[in-house]
Amino acid sequence: MTFLSTTFAFGTFPFWVWLLGKNFVDFKKIRFPWWSMSLSLITLCIPAVTGLLLRRYRPVLAHRLARYLNPIAVGKNTKFNFY
């Protein structure tokens, strides 16, 4: 879901600004944050692809890493959800 929303943002964000800001925005002066959007997509894909490749080619290593990384991820998510 996060990957899809980040990917769709490349097309929907400029469309949304065009649709709602026709009367308010000068499109010759506006700059879209393409670099930030690309960077967030890349930083999202690198861990996901790494995990997929580990699961496919090194399942034993992936299982060992998951044993240690899952509690860390759960703890981090719980911390961010409470604050």
How does this structure look, described?
The chain has 83 residues and is mostly helical. It has one domain (2-82). The chain has helices at 2-20, 34-57, 59-82. Helix 1 (2-20) runs antiparallel to helix 2 (34-57). It is elongated. The two termini are 23 Å apart. The relative contact order is 0.08.
Outline of the structure:
The protein is mainly alpha-helical and 83 residues long.
SSE order and pairing:
Layout: H1 2-20, H2 34-57, H3 59-82
Helix pairs in contact: 1-2, 2-3
Tell me about the biggest sheet?
none
Distinct helical segment count: 3
Helicity level, as a percent range?
Answer: over 70%
N-to-C terminal Cα separation, in Å? Answer: 23 Å
Low-confidence stretches: none
Q: What is the 3D form?
A: elongated
Structural class: mainly alpha
Order of helices and strands: HHH
Our count of domains comes out at: 1
What fraction of the residues are assigned to beta strands by DSSP? under 5%
Number of strands: 0
CA gyration radius, whole angstroms = 19 Å
Mean pLDDT: 82
What attributes does this structure have?
single chain; 83 residues; mainly alpha; 3 helices; elongated
